[in-house]
Amino acid sequence: MATNLAINDVLLNTALDMGGLKTKKDTVTLALQEFIQRRQAEDIIELFHGVEYAPDYNYKKLRHRK
Predict the structure, then answer these.
(1) Fewest CB within a 10 Å sphere: which of 1, 15, 27, 36?
(2) Is pTM beyond 0.90 here?
(3) How many helices (H) and strands (E) does the chain have?
(4) Higher confidence at residue 41 or residue 1?
(5) Shortest CA distance to 54 belongs to which of 43, 46, 62?
(6) Could you tell me the residue range of the domain that residue 19 belongs to?
(7) Cβ count within 10 A of residue 6
(8) pLDDT at 66 over 70
(9) Assign residue 20 a region: left if phi > 0, alpha if psi is -120 to 50, beta otherwise?
């Protein structure tokens, strides 16, 4: 899909240099992938705040050592 965007040249060139990629298209694609991964990771981390643990749960007691 062809898209024309007005992207800040300083930001794009900085990202291009930092990423070590050859094209602006590759740089924007990588930036979008990393943005999506970060947001998905934040969503997963947020799920941990909804877990309720039993106050009497003792994982050490459940270990079986010989």
Answers:
(1) 1
(2) no
(3) 2, 0
(4) 41
(5) 62
(6) 1-66
(7) 5
(8) no
(9) left
Token readout for 7 is 């992207």
**Which amino acid appears at position 6 of this protein?**
A
One-letter amino acid identity for 57? Answer: Y
Could you tell me which of 25, 33, 23, 19 has the C-alpha nearest to residue 5? 25
- Given a contact cutoff of 8 angstroms between Cβ atoms, the answer to whether 27 and 15 are in contact is yes
Unique residue bearing structure tokens 């979008």: 32
What is the C-alpha to C-alpha distance for residues 28 and 34, in angstroms, rounded to an integer? 10
Residue 33 corresponds to which tokens in the numbers above? 């992938």
3-state helix, strand, coil in the chain (%, to 5): 55, 0, 45
Contact 24, 16 (CB under 8 A): yes
The domain total for the chain is 1
Amino acid identity of residue 62, one-letter, is L
